[in-house]
Amino acid sequence: MISIHEPAVVVTDLGLALLGAFFARRLWTGPPDPLPRAGAVLMGALASAAFWGAIFHAFFPDDTATTAGFLAWMPVVLSIVVASTTMLELALRLLVPRLSPAGRRAIVAAYAAGFAGVVILVDESFTSIVRFYVPALVLFLFGSTRQAIRSPASGWGLVVAGLVLSAGAAVLQQAKVSIHPTYFDYNAVYHVVQGIALVFLYLGFRRVSG
Known about the structure:
The chain starts with 6 loop residues before the first helix and ends with a helix. By secondary structure, it is mainly α. It is globular and about 50 Å long. Helix content is 78%, strand content 0%. It has a single domain, classed as Rhopdopsin 7-helix transmembrane proteins, CATH 1.20.1070.
């Protein structure tokens, strides 16, 4: 019989994956605007991270201490790299609009290579991932807030709310805030708050244009 470890974490991860995939599809099949399309990529990457996270938590109780566990963790890492680079690209587009596309791509590529290299070769912990993820999120939050102030009815306010909730989810995860240490731990709490964040991000990306 197959044993499922951390069932609450697995269930909330799968729920987050389904929600993110649904939102990604809706954004991608909507109007062919670059900002909603970027939102679809972000949603898809977060959905992928959640799906592979469910597999990892379900079947690898020793985490990355084993080779199999380390390899199972890598799709989660790479999915978050994609999500982070998408937010960084969006932040640069909003904050430095005069930067050439080539310059923007170079910055994003260097960031992605550094992120992936450190997490794969040096420290694969979620704390290490957060250290790269949060700066990209904060930059995108700053750019989104500026857009929301300039255009209050544009949908950027909803994006800001989603980013704030996403940052809050990461803080709760790092602080190990849980409802129950066994049945609903800090990872499950993180997934629930992140799911609420995705709702706001989706509603915001549906309304922005660029």
